[in-house]
Design a protein that fits this description.
Shape: globular
Strand order of the largest sheet: 1-2
Mean pLDDT: 89
Largest sheet: 2 strands, antiparallel
Helix content: 55-70%
Number of strands: 2
Structural class: mainly alpha
Length: 483
């Protein structure tokens, strides 16, 4: 294991992270909110620590193997999220404990969107900007940006890319060189962020709110600059803009690249995962609309459709934005939407959950098993579109599903052992493991009422969800550490 090389890389990443402390400090100067000093202190601390890690090991360069790639990715998220908590601990407003600062930081960088803060409207603009910025940086995974930068510093990126990129097929690349792939991803990501910001601004948000909400929308994060989230604006047009960009961000970014490259929107409809994703959104919206209409929850058909569409897309894509408390809806809908977050977005998107393509393949595998019962000697292949998949892919997905369920159960039992009630424990773990954000029960509004132990358990759940289980689990196998 190339430990010195790993320390060198982490030093570079922490030094790069320090630069992200400067925009909040600048925002503080513009709005004169008094929150900038903490970010400047954090900037200096991160820069010094990054330099001290890099300088003694600056000449330790070598090709990364898969093991180093996995370890760097896990350390990347844990170390950078930990350093990101420093300015939150230094702030006077809000005055956060260590556990709360870490929870907010990990929630931001993993794009979970669960928060321990209340009275968000009264926070300094620097803090509001920083929370949204954390989600934006974590949305695609800063590791993809690092893959574009680190080759120039003597670090190959393919191992990192395979360990970090969401989805069952890690080997696929959009362009021959991984650095080009990362750059194209970020061009698309940045373009969508700019388009989303302009759309929010045109729909009636202030420039500050438009940029901040674009950060968390494209990242499918869910943080907001207001306690009422999107409900603060009370605007069907803003709701529609949010839904539109959540759907775009929930699609595989490699598919976006293919559409741009081919200059044809038809490319979307050739993709089976995209078709399944849109179908799921339409079905959920229809169910929510019918149930809300039958219970006469809202006064008009238009309001019912607006709320049903927004909440169905927001929860199922794992964004977690809110226009109303969906926990107060008829019981079927909150539970249905929480379960829909287990599906999440498409592979290669900024969404959380198990990903649509895995659910599609699990369904196809179930159908194949039923056919085998009828025709035991027949050979059936599983096809995704026109492409037949090897059995190892299907087996890997069953393994992933089993591991996902096991991690969920262990985390939920830990919360129950800490005295959390069953509904809160179930939905809190679902919200964090799926990188969703809001839950039900005690965590319907925020997570501040939970004990520190429960928050640390949920931080681990966020990491498992963001790293898609196996990237983190592999570190606990003895074979990983053998020479």
């Amino acid at each position: 294991m190339q430990y010195k090389n790993i320390i060198r890389i982490l030093g570079i990443l922490v030094a790069l992270l320090s630069v992200t402390m400067l925009p909040p400090a600048l925002i503080s100067m513009v709005y004169r909110d008094g929150g900038g000093v903490s970010f400047l202190m954090a900037f200096l601390f991160c820069l010094v620590m990054g330099g001290l890690s890099w300088y003694p090991n600056r000449n330790e360069k070598g090709d990364l193997r898969a093991r180093e790639g996995f370890l760097i990715v896990v350390l990347f998220w844990t170390v950078l999220a930990s350093f990101s908590a420093i300015p939150l601990m230094l702030l006077e407003q809000p005055n956060l404990s260590v556990a709360d600062a870490f929870f907010e930081s990990f929630s931001g960088l993993t794009t979970t969107g669960a928060t321990i803060l209340n009275k968000i409207d009264g926070l300094p603009h620097a803090v509001l900007w920083y929370r949204q910025q954390l989600q934006w940086l974590g949305g695609m995974g800063i590791i993809v940006l690092a893959v574009a930068v680190l080759p120039m510093l003597g670090v190959g990126g393919m191992q990192l890319y395979r360990a970090e990129t969401p989805g069952p097929v890690k080997e696929s690349k959009m362009t021959p060189r991984i650095a080009d792939t990362a750059k194209h991803l970020w061009y698309i990501y940045l373009s969508l962020t700019v388009a989303c910001s302009l759309s929010y601004w045109a729909a009636g948000m202030t420039v500050f709110d438009a940029i901040c909400h674009a950060f968390s929308t494209i990242a499918i994060g869910g943080f907001s600059t207001h306690d009422l989230s999107m409900g603060y604006f009370d605007s069907p047009l803003i709701n529609f803009v949010c839904v539109l960009f959540l759907l775009i961000a929930g699609v595989n970014f490699a598919l976006h690249f293919a559409v741009v490259h081919s200059r044809s929107l038809r490319t979307y409809f050739y993709d089976p995962e995209f078709k399944a994703f849109i179908t799921i959104q339409l079905v959920l919206t229809l169910i929510c609309f019918i149930v809300l209409m039958s219970f006469s929850v809202y006064d008009s058909t238009f309001d019912t459709l607006d709320q049903a569409l927004f909440q169905a897309v927001s929860i199922s894509t794992t964004a977690g934005f809110a226009t109303t408390s969906f926990a107060d809806w008829p019981t079927l809908l909150p539970i249905l939407l929480i379960f829909s977050s287990f599906i999440g977005g498409c592979a290669g998107s900024t969404g959380g959950g198990m990903k649509v393509v895995r659910i599609v393949l699990l369904y196809l595998q179930g159908i194949r098993e039923l056919k085998k019962l009828v025709h035991p000697k027949a050979i059936f292949t599983i096809k995704l579109g026109a492409k037949a998949l090897p059995n190892r892919v299907v087996e890997a997905i069953w393994g992933f599903f089993s591991a996902y369920a096991a991690v969920f159960v262990v985390c939920m039992l830990a919360l129950l052992a800490a005295g959390v009630d069953d509904i809160t424990a179930f939905t809190a773990v679902a919200a964090c493991l799926n990188n969703l954000g809001p839950g039900l029960g005690e965590v319907a509004a925020n997570f501040s009422g939970l004990s520190d132990f429960s928050k640390w358990v949920l931080i681990i759940a966020m990491l498992f969800g963001r790293l898609e289980i196996f990237t983190l689990l592999v570190l606990f196998t003895p074979a990983f550490w053998r020479s």
